[in-house]
């Protein structure tokens, strides 16, 4: 009997792995190069600080994701951004399997768990945020691991699982700062479940100790930030979110009129708003004096406004709880002309439509909370598990809508718990249909059925694999041209004095290389010349080279002109072009 049960759940898990991996491989093959977004550079800056100076604590970004990148660099080579993107795909496959196990533990139906997890595994909306070098892929996996561990704890109440839950929470908010306040809420919920099992006294000391350890680490991180980086907090991104929030709500004129600094900040923000500029990053770049010192003064000004006008803030935030559920944005996009462009475009449309089912989330919350309200249903493991998932999702939505100021922010952060929302919404719908079906045919709810639904589902998925593979045309790897190295892009981060240069190898393996940089800077009359070593780049791969520009009297000599790059390659690597001239400065 146990062997049959294992096979009943194992075969769908194997098929889920194949399908999820196949869709990810197809998506990556469609546009294979690693994607670096606007926020990626700040994480790569922290990676540089970790590699060069061993500095884990940074006022800009939390350390977990940069440590992940640093570890991959150490194994696969410095600047191997493609390896990071691929590793994030592996984490997504693991997260999908965890969602399958989670759904199986909740509903005890292999076909239902498979269906729910498949909605996650082949969801191009989610995968589009996993491929770029950002924290969403890692955060999704961490939150899935945290939720699964918590569910296992609620079923067994083993103390080591409680500590493992605390470990996942620590990693999660050392990756994404908005999850900093989840531990007390989550522990309160599981201790309530333990109280109903008469296990509260045995588990409370461990939960309290875990909270103390978690926030002691957070306190040590904040203290190090204050002493080392002159910033009291975890990341100054929260400061700019505060400013963005009052700009979103048009509350910039609600400061203290008796405070000259508040008046100055309000006048400055009003000047930009009259020009239709609402982006605090743009204003920060053009008002360095006002937004200096980690934006501390504008953040205090914004905090004053929110604390002194809480009713206005809450009234403006409440509608966002509902509208943000379907605020859609895709990050990494399917190339219609690339490999498998047509079937991937169809799958993207399906993922797009699936995302709008999030509008049903409030109704599902009301359903499960009403079940939780009645004592007769409160002890049901399904009700308790769904209550946990709702707690996590509602927490994420509240923190996101209260702190985020752009629709893009909502979508990007919702990616982490969107798999849990799929379980809540579609688990409720499909589970309700199952209850109705069992009632019609006079079977007990969730009783084992001898039907061949699982076999039909497995056969259908095998047909789906055949259809997808039949649409594969051409090679998955772009054939090399007659160049060894091509300079793909150059990105400056003037705030920290770094240049990032991407080199793409479409020729023979390059074991070693170097380059000479020549550019002008407003701080010296003579052009700056730098000699930089390039790491080994195998054929059909790319590397990101991080360059510290010279500094004089605390001023970075960033380029304000075209950058000339002279490549020096081994004698065996001959290519027609070894000199590149490209823009590597901020035109604004």
Automatic annotation (TrEMBL):
Q: Where are the transmembrane segments?
A: 6-29, 83-103, 110-130, 136-153, 160-175, 181-196, 203-223, 352-374, 386-405, 411-436, 457-477
Main location (coarse class): membrane
Its subcellular locations are: Cell membrane
Q: Which UniProt keywords apply?
A: Cell membrane, Glycosyltransferase, Membrane, Transferase, Transmembrane, Transmembrane helix
User: According to Swiss-Prot or TrEMBL, what is its membrane topology?
Assistant: Multi-pass membrane protein
Which InterPro entries has this protein been placed in? LipidA_mod_glycosyltrf_83
The question of whether Transmembrane helix is a record keyword is answered with yes
Domain of life of the source: Bacteria
Q: Transmembrane as a keyword?
A: yes
Q: PANTHER family per the record?
A: MANNOSYLTRANSFERASE YKCB-RELATED, MEMBRANE PROTEIN
Please give the name of this protein: Glycosyltransferase RgtA/B/C/D-like domain-containing protein
Its lineage opens with:
Bacteria, Bacillati, Chloroflexota, Ktedonobacteria, Ktedonobacterales
């Amino acid at each position: 009997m146990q062997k049959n049960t294992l096979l009943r759940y194992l075969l769908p898990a194997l098929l889920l792995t194949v399908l999820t991996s196949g869709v990810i491989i197809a998506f990556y093959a469609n546009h294979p190069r690693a994607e670096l977004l606007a926020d990626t550079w700040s994480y790569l800056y922290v990676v540089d600080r970790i590699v060069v100076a061993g500095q884990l604590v940074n006022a800009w970004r939390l350390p977990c994701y940069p440590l992940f990148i640093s570890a991959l660099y150490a194994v696969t080579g410095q600047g191997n951004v493609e390896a990071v993107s691929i590793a994030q795909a592996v984490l997504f496959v693991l997260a999908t399997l965890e969602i399958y196990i989670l759904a199986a533990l909740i509903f005890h139906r292999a076909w239902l768990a498979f269906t729910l997890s498949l909605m996650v595994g082949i969801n191009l909306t989610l995968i589009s945020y996993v491929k770029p070098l950002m924290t969403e892929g890692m955060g999704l996996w961490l939150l899935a691991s945290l939720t699964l561990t918590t569910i296992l704890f609620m079923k067994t109440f083993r103390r080591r699982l409680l500590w493992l839950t605390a470990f996942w929470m620590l990693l999660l908010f050392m990756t994404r700062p908005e999850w900093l306040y989840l531990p007390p809420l989550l522990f309160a919920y599981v201790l309530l479940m333990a109280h109903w099992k008469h296990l509260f006294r045995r588990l409370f000391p461990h939960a309290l100790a875990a909270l103390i350890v978690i926030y002691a680490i957070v306190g040590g991180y904040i203290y190090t930030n204050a002493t080392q980086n002159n910033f009291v907090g975890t990341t100054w991104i929260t400061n700019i979110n505060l400013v963005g929030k009052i700009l979103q709500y048009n509350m910039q004129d609600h400061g203290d009129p008796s405070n000259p600094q508040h008046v100055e900040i309000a006048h400055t923000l009003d000047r930009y708003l009259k020009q239709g500029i609402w982006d605090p990053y743009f204003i920060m770049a053009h008002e360095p004096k006002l937004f200096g010192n980690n934006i501390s003064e504008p953040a205090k000004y914004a905090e004053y406004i929110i604390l002194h006008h809480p009713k206005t803030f809450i009234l403006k935030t409440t509608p966002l709880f509902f509208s943000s559920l379907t605020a859609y944005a895709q990050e990494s996009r399917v190339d219609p002309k690339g490999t498998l462009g047509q079937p991937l475009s169809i799958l993207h449309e399906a993922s797009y439509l699936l995302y709008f089912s999030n509008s049903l989330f409030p109704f599902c919350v009301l359903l499960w909370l009403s079940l939780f309200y009645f004592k007769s249903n409160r002890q049901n493991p399904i009700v308790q598990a769904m209550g946990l998932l709702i707690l996590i999702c509602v927490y994420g939505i509240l923190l996101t809508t209260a702190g985020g100021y752009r629709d893009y922010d909502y979508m990007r952060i919702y990616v982490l718990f969107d798999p849990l929302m799929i379980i809540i919404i579609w688990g409720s719908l499909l589970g309700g249909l199952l209850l109705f079906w069992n009632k019609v045919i006079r079977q007990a709810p969730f009783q084992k059925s001898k039907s061949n639904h699982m076999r039909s589902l497995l056969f259908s998925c095998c047909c789906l694999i055949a259809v997808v593979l039949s649409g594969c045309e051409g090679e998955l790897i772009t054939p090399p041209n007659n160049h060894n190295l091509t300079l793909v892009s150059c990105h400056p981060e003037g705030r920290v004095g770094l240049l990032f240069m991407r080199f793409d190898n479409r020729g023979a393996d390059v074991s070693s290389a170097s380059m000479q940089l020549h550019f002008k800077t407003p701080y010296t009359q003579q052009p700056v010349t730098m000699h930089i070593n390039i790491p080994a780049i195998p054929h059909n791969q790319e590397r990101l080279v991080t360059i510290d520009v010279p500094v004089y009297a605390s001023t970075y000599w960033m380029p304000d002109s075209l950058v000339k790059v002279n490549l020096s390659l081994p004698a065996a690597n001959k290519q027609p072009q070894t000199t590149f001239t490209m823009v590597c400065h901020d035109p604004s």
